[in-house]
Amino acid sequence: MALIEVALSEDVGDGDRTSEWAVPAESRSEAVIVAKQRVTVAGLAVAAEVFRAVDAELAVEFKSDDSDEIDVGEVVMAIAGPTRALLTAERTALNFLGRLSGIATLTRAFVSRVEGTGARIVDTRKTTPGWRALEKMAVRAGGGSNHRMGLDDMVLVKDNHIAAAGGLTAAIERVRMSNVGLPVEVEVHTGEELEEALEAGVTRILLDNMTRDGLREAVSLVRERVGDSVTLEASGNVTLDTVLEVAETGVDLISVGALTHSAAAADFSLQVIS
C-alpha cells in the first residue's frame, strides 16, 4: 500500500538509529498491542501490513477483529520476529490502528445514540487526504454507512452548483442530460426548495442545516406527497448531543462530517513480552 510506504519513509528515513544501535542484530522478540481505553477496533489489517512491510519475517496474529468493542487491557494483536524490525514498525502501525479505531469508536457512539429510530449514520468527504478508503472502512467498522466515495460515483447538487446553473431545476435538468446512471441527490435549505426538488422528481434530498421543526415539516410533506419513495438526509453540525433529536424527526440518513474530521485517535500501546 502506497500510504504505508509514505508513512514508513516519513518515520524511518535513512534508518531507525535507536534500534540499530541499541538492539543486537540477532535479537528476536514477542510483543502484543494492548488497548488503553474502551474502543471499537478498526485497522488491524493495515497495522499488520506495516509490520510485514518493515520485515517479512515478522509474524502477526490477530487477537480481535475489526468492529469488535474491547475494554482496557485487552490484546488486539501479537507480533513475533526480529526485534529491531518490530520496534521500527511500532509507531507507524500504532498510528494507523489508533486513527482508524478512533473513527470506528466515534461512529459506534453515534450509531448507538440513534438505535431504534430507523435513521442511519453516514459519513462525508471530509476525510484526511490520501486516507479516504481507510477512514470510510473505519466508519463501516463502527456500524455506520458510507456516503459517496468521491465526485465520480454520485451526483450531489449543492448550493454552489445551483447558483452556477441558474437555479435548482436548471441544475437538475442539466444533470439529467448527461447522467449515465449515477444516483442523484439534491441539497435544499428551505421548504420552497424542497417543493421544487419534489416537482423535479428528485428521489434523494439533502435537508441541510434545517431546524428540528424544519426537518419535521420536511419529512411530513415528503411522506404525505410521495411516501417512502424519496430518501431524506439531514446534515449540518450534528453532534452526539443532537443526533437523537435529528433522528426522531423521521429522516432516513444523518451525515456526520465529524466521524472522520474530528475523531480522536484511540490509545494503544505495544508491549514487548519476551
Alpha-beta content class: alpha/beta
**CATH fold annotation of the largest domain:** TIM Barrel
Outline the biggest β-sheet: 6 strands, parallel
Biggest sheet: strand arrangement: 6-11-10-9-8-7
Identify the quaternary structure here: single chain
How many strand segments? 12
| Radius of gyration from CA coordinates | 23 Å
Which second-level CATH architecture of the largest domain applies?
Alpha-Beta Barrel
Q: Mean pLDDT score, rounded?
A: 97
Strand content: 15-25%
Helix content: 40-55%
Quickly name the level 1 CATH class of the largest domain.
Alpha Beta
Order of helices and strands: HHEEHEEEHEHEHHEHEHEHEHE
**Overall geometry:** elongated
Would you spell out the secondary-structure blueprint of this structure?
Layout: H1 2-12, H2 17-22, E1 28-35, E2 39-40, H3 44-54, E3 59-62, E4 69-70, E5 75-82, H4 83-113, E6 120-122, H5 132-141, E7 155-157, H6 159-165, H7 168-178, E8 184-188, H8 191-199, E9 204-208, H9 212-226, E10 231-235, H10 243-247, E11 253-255, H11 258-261, E12 268-272
Parallel strand pairs: 6-11, 7-8, 8-9, 9-10, 10-11
Antiparallel strand pairs: 1-5, 1-12, 2-4, 3-5
Helix pairs in contact: 1-4, 3-4, 4-5, 6-7
Write a structural description.
- There is one protein chain.
- The protein is α/β, with parallel strands linked by helices.
- It folds into two domains: 119 residues, Quinolinate phosphoribosyl transferase, N-terminal domain (Aldehyde Oxidoreductase, domain 3, Alpha-Beta Complex); 148 residues, Aldolase class I (TIM Barrel).
- It is 44% helix and 19% strand.
- The strands form three sheets. Strands 6-11-10-9-8-7 form a six-stranded parallel sheet. Strands 3-5-1-12 form a four-stranded antiparallel sheet, covered by helices on one side.
- Helix 1 crosses helix 4 and helix 3 packs antiparallel against helix 4.
- It starts with a helix and ends with a strand.
